[in-house]
Amino acid sequence: MTAWLSFLVVVLCSWSLRDFVVEACTCVPIHPQDAFCNSDIVIRAKVVGKKLMKDGPFGTMRYTVKQMKMYRGFQIMPHVQYIYTEASESLCGVKLEVNKYQYLITGRVYEGKVYTGLCNWYEKWDRLTLSQRKGLNHRYHLGCSCKIRPCYYLPCFATSKNECIWTDMLSNFGHSGYQAKHYACIQRVEGYCSWYRGWAPPDKTIINATDP
């Protein structure tokens, strides 16, 4: 199996696609903090060019970006020039507009290239909430050792001290929910994790508050 096919298999499995050829991309909801912590690279960038590459079974789109700021990945790749994604949206390829917006882009590094897709967290920068921007700068780092557990049906309870219960799926889906927009799950005293909204410095005396 070639290196490309090996990478593609990993991507398809991580994105929960049941078949190699699919009608639409299917992604598991993920809180922005988890998307941040699970990514090799997190940057703010503007797309300044694009080119369809012939590598891979269906082609790959290569976006040329102007990196504004890096939030994660300094040790791996301090400066990102290109972002790669599947050319087909059915395979979770991302469509980014050239010379129009600044984007928040998360991705993984494979053989020296940054790959992203619909199941990664990407968004126009001006659509991010103030809490999400603060999370990128500092707060998400504080919670990478915490576990955000999705709640699909009530009741939901934390099963360990490092869990925060994510309830956006009860009324929303994915990044659009209130917790995703306004809360970070950070570690407090004695290893306990709890939701933190961020209007004031974290109160280290509060522990295990799973309901924001």
TrEMBL record:
Q: Which residues bind Zn(2+)?
A: C25
Q: Which cysteine pairs are covalently linked by disulfides here?
A: C25-C92, C27-C119, C37-C144, C146-C193, C151-C156, C164-C185
Protein name from the UniProt record = Metalloproteinase inhibitor 3
Originating organism: Peucedramus taeniatus
Under the heading InterPro entries, the entry gives:
Netrin_domain, TIMP, TIMP-like_OB-fold, TIMP_C, TIMP_CS
Q: Which family does it belong to?
A: Belongs to the protease inhibitor I35 (TIMP) family.
Going by the UniProt record, its keywords in alphabetical order are:
Disulfide bond, Extracellular matrix, Metal-binding, Metalloenzyme inhibitor, Metalloprotease inhibitor, Protease inhibitor, Secreted, Signal, Zinc
Q: What are its GO cellular component terms?
A: extracellular matrix; extracellular space
